[in-house]
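Handoff note, outgoing to incoming analyst
You'll be picking up this chain. Sequence as last confirmed:
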Amino acid sequence: MHTEKAFVEIIKQNEALIYKVTAVYGNHAEDKKDLYQEIVLQLWKAFEKFRNQSQVSTWLYRVALNTAITRLRKDKKEGQMVTFDAGVHVLEDSYDPLLEERSKNLYSHIAMLNDIEKAVVLLYLEDKNHQEIAQITGLTASNVGTRMARIKEKLKKGITKG
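Most recent structure output, in case you need it:
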């Protein structure tokens, strides 16, 4: 039996994970806030069915990414323009303007990827291995490897052009 207290604790422990998904799939601050709330709502709805058969982070990523992608597709059908607000958060103590500029550049190119590619890159940047990414996205591990190679090439070409 899952309790509300346990759910709140899981959300608190994994808040950064949810924020990362909203950063990649949200358009602006208000949109990111709405997406965050929608993800938490979907996690709550799915919480009762979570059986600890996978890691909590795997389950969270799966629900969060599915929610974000579903919402993005719904917004596109409704004709809303999707843009990327590269809100890269850098700690004050370690502020490096060159690093911040490179991060913004990378995230602006990630924003141009399709929904699945964004998910794969996000998980890759979280140091997930191909098997973990496969579990979360529903792809095979070999397909993840192939997609990652293509995505890296796509990003490399885009960044060197710009």
